[in-house]
Amino acid sequence: MKKTLAILAVALTAVLSACGGTGAASSDKTVTVYTVDGLEDWYTARFAEFKAQTGITVQAVTAGSGEVASRVEKEKANTQADVLVTLPPFIQRVAGQGLLQPSSPQGSETVQKDPQGRFFAMMNNYLSFIHNPAADPKTWNDLLDPKYQGKVQYSTPGEAGDGTAVLLQLQHVFGDQGALGYLGKLEANNAGPSSSTGKLQPKVAKGELLVANGDVQMNLAEIAKSGGFEVFFPADAQGKRSTFALPYYAGLVTNAPHADNAKKLLDFLFSTDVQAKAADAYGIPARPDVVASGANAGKIKAATQGVEIWNPDWTAVLGKLDADLAAYKKAVGR
Questions:
Q1: Above 70 in pLDDT, residue 6?
Q2: b/e code 283-311 from CB counts within 10 Å (16+ = b)
């Protein structure tokens, strides 16, 4: 739901050697998480708490949502990851290949989840857009203005979760063919493809770009850290602003080298205490019985005030994703 390859805790080679695939000793006090980016600071604090409680060190490999999903798929014969955290529809794709095994994390009973128990919403989030203070776009049509030539960029559908979300949102607003027509026109202002959503934030802050896509959690967290841009939701011709839920999903990888440790980590991530800290990262607790409070929760509510929230049918999305991506590439000439 994202962006570009980065290593959060250790170098990738260190992670792989530490895991050693399915032959790694189950007694190792480690657990490896392949995760979409956007939660780095939150993970640092939570994983330190987890180690203090259990003695287990979390080794996290952070990349775009499509990238971490592809890694799990490529490593099927020599599994390296224990837990996968990524956005839809990539989590559904991995599960459909049998690469996530059913589990039942304590505290996950009431969250949005796979009917077969292969993945669970860990933190809720929404698609958003950002703009530099020098610009003030209000509508989708505004983004087609020639004054934005070379100053608009969105992460690539199919490679980034947030980029795929842009395509879905436009289908919701304009219909399938209308979305393709719109993106074809937007290409005149598009700065080019990007596999990363996260790296667009500093470009907007510096004014290299005026508009980019993002998500509420990541964008508000970056604004709190360094500022430089504002969150908005483009309106349609009737003035309606809308977005959809884009949860961070977590699941136990099939043949996880450290399955017992992974289950302990999942229990931890769905615990009341950890869920209550979702707002620390400008996320929303996935558990409906846990209510976020404090200034951050208020900022999330303010950012989405007056925005209609809709929910995709992710099974249907995944079923036609390949065809949609092929049509997208044709529409934008790639």
A1: no
A2: bbbbbeebebeeebbebbeebbeebeeee
Provide the 10 A C-beta neighbour count for residue 109: 12
pLDDT of residue 27: 53
pLDDT in tens, 81-100: 999 999 999 999 999 999 99
CATH 3.40.50.300 describes domain 127-245+304-332 = no
6-24 average pLDDT score: 36
Which residue, 119, 110, 19, is CA-closest to 65?
119
What's the gap between Cα 237 and its chain centre?
A: 28
SS3 of 55, please? Answer: coil
Give the global pTM: 0.84
Q: What is the pLDDT of residues 204-213, one digit of tens each?
A: 999 999 999 9
Query: DSSP per residue over 84-119, as a string?
Result: EEE-TTHHHHHHHTT-EE----TT-TTS-B-TTSS-
Q: Name the helix (H) or strand (E) containing 206.
A: helix 200-206
**Closest CA relative to residue 280, chosen from 41, 106, 70, 61:** 41
CATH number for 6-125+247-294: choose from 3.40.50.2000, 3.10.180.10, 3.40.190.10, 1.10.290.10: 3.40.190.10
